[in-house]
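Most newcomers find our protein records easier to grasp once they have seen one. To make this concrete, we reproduce a full record directly below:

…
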Amino acid sequence: MRRSVDDYPFNSADLPPGYEEVELTPVSWAVAISDDYDDAMQRVILTVEEVGSAGRGLIAHLAPKIARRLRGALPDGLAEMGEQPGRWPPTAAKPLDRGAMVTTGQTPDGPPVAEETGDVGRDLADHVRALAEDMHRLESSPQQLEAASRLVVEARSHLGDSERLRWYEVSDEDLDDEGRSRLREEHREHSLYRGGHNPLAPPMTVTRETDAEGRQIVVGELRTGRTREGPPGRLHGGFLAGLFDDVLSGSPGLVDAGPAVTARLEVCYRKATPVDADLRLEAWVEKQSGRRLIARARCLVAGEVTAEAEALFVSVTHRPDDRDQESRG
């Protein structure tokens, strides 16, 4: 795997005043990451080429500790010159692509922000997700972090103190059909992986489709950022297992199996699943016998399978206090 991070073509304006290209070598540079090595370790690839000599430049393959040393030396050099060591341009930031759940827009004098969707709970959750991504991505000064912290405290004070009751904390006798429907919707919106109102959720969009073989499948689609990172540049395996469990939990509904719980979940990691990538998870029923149901799933990135999973579900007796609960592991 090799992925470009940044590149900079030479600009004649880069030369110090009074110098010509014959006196200072004009160069372009590029940064990428790759794990195409015998030890499969990801390294930062720094390429410096003289303009007009493509393919004949110097290429450094930097292990993480060496890349960190270089990363530390550049801000130190900027600080010695009295320059801020932040990213350039100072207000630039990569849009956080959250698929169908959120879009981004450019403010006149700031970084991209989540656009309003008309659902204030979802909008707030999107902004909190963006805040978490920014904290992971940006090198902020202690003063900037302190100022942001004060604003977060103020934002929390606007949420009030009335605690929201969950669906199983309300007596069925106190609900009409509209109330039951509202609580079911709130339960979905606050779920760990799909919940648009849950800032901890990616969130994942879940639908049903018919695949090329004509079978019904559950499809989960999402984009993950570096807050879900495990090994360098790769999605945390435990987080991927949770995604599988959530998507697979919709499989009993494909055959009207009723309420069911996950009895076993096995994940096979075929290759690294990258972060900052669009993920598609597909789940289907493989076999059903009595109360037992076996479902399988796979994770795809750009059409390539990175992991597979198999789950055993066991149907449970529908109890009064389990009203309308979806299949969950």
Notes: The mean pLDDT is 82.
